[in-house]
Amino acid sequence: MNSEDCVIEAAAAGPGGAVADTSFGEGAVPGRLGAAAWAPVAALTLGIATLVGSEFLPASVLPAMASDVGVSEGTAGLAVATTAVAGAVTAPTIAVLLPRTDRRTVLIGLLATAVVSNVVVAVAPDFAVLLVGRLLLGVAIAGFWSFALGAGTHATPGRDHVVSTSLALGVSAATIIGVPLSSVLGDAVGWRPVFWAAAALSGLALLAVTATLPPVPAHPGAGLGMLRQALANRRLIAGVGCIALVAFGNFAAYPYIRLAIERVTDGGTVWLLLGWGVGGLAGNLAAGALARRLGLAVVVAPALLAASLLMLAAVPGLPAATAAIVLWGFGFNMVPVATQLWVTRAEPQRVESALSLQVTAFQVAITAGAAIGGAVVDGGGVRAALLVGACAAVVGSVGFGALRGSRP
């Protein structure tokens, strides 16, 4: 039996990604936690929701934003890619640059950076300034993702799968509420007030984390040495490559989801975006339920993503598009939970570094996906971008399938 398919490991991520003897295994059962103990997790989830909502706001207001700053819709998609470039640099380096800094302090600083980022975008006079704001957001997102699971598990020992699912539910909240609502607000009052609202929500998350999260000391071994050891784990690196392929498949198409919807309907955009989010919520929960069968989850999720993109590209009509978009949300939103847990099982001794590599894979994929997807959309339309995404997701699924027969 593969390690990720076994009963959840006896080692769970502790402070700053350390391995703490606070989880399942050998008959040990974590003690019951009161409601107050979950407040830090709720605050971290709010932080993730505001950051992810901010990251993908351009997809909700793309046509208006592109027109206002004087670029094509394909070029405007680089607002997502730029964020990911900063994230790809930040994720593997932030722990190296801040090896001893309390992770609570870092998380608070990252949320403050998100506030500044959204304000810069809201007042940007041109596309260049807008991209500066998006670079700041990339730093905030990648750093927050890298440390949030360790901080949450520090507050609720032995429940890494619950914390991971909770954080992913923040992503679902952003997509179920944030994406459709920002689309409505963008159409009603303009795209700039949408980013002002994102700045306010980021400030609220900052206050929540400050008020509830206890100190989270960095792991004594955190830094360049830990990262080097994680990079030597061939199975982990192969899995990170598969994560990048799957994420690329999604993000070659997702920045242009509104364009894909407008191919089949003029008036149902908000409802179909909502359907994507509802599918995403179900996908988060399904991935959490499969925490003991991660080898299966990381194969099935990309396969569902590929099927949904192919359906949306190839099958005409509103009913088929609706089913495809819901399935798209379901399949892709299984991926963050399943892969986050998968990397912690593949490298249980260096969880913080393993998570940083997972975040890096996502950010590199978002960068490449948005850039290549933008070129494909400008050259061949959104249908071509959907097909490119489906092919990448299939390859990622096959890769994870091959890894089921290997061991860490």
Could you explain how this protein is built, in words?
This protein is mainly alpha-helical and 408 residues long. The chain has one domain: Up-down Bundle (Growth Hormone, Chain: A). Helix content is 76%, strand content 1%. It has 17 helices and two strands. The protein has a two-stranded antiparallel ribbon. Helix 6 runs antiparallel to helix 9. The two termini are 12 Å apart.
Descriptors:
globular, 2 strands, 408 residues, mainly alpha, 1% strand
How is this fold's topology laid out?
Layout: E1 12-13, E2 19-20, H1 39-55, H2 57-60, H3 62-69, H4 73-76, H5 78-97, H6 103-123, H7 127-155, H8 160-189, H9 191-212, H10 224-231, H11 234-251, H12 257-262, H13 269-289, H14 294-314, H15 318-346, H16 351-380, H17 382-403
Antiparallel strand pairs: 1-2
Helix pairs in contact: 1-7, 1-8, 1-9, 5-7, 5-16, 6-7, 6-9, 7-8, 7-16, 8-9, 8-13, 8-15, 11-15, 11-16, 11-17, 13-15, 14-15, 14-17, 15-16, 16-17
Shape: globular
Estimated radius of gyration: 20 Å
Can you name the CATH architecture? Up-down Bundle
Task: Report how far the terminal alpha carbons are from each other.
Answer: 12 Å
The overall strand count is 2
The overall pLDDT average reads: 83
Uncertain runs with pLDDT below 50, 5 residues or more? 1-30
What is the CATH T-level topology? Growth Hormone, Chain: A
Largest pleated sheet:
2 strands, antiparallel
Q: Decide which structural class fits the backbone.
A: mainly alpha
CATH level-4 homologous superfamily: MFS general substrate transporter like domains
H and E string: EEHHHHHHHHHHHHHHHHH
Top-tier CATH class: Mainly Alpha
Number of helices: 17
Number of domains as seen in the coordinates: 1
What is the topology, as strand order, of the major beta sheet? 1-2
Oligomer: single chain
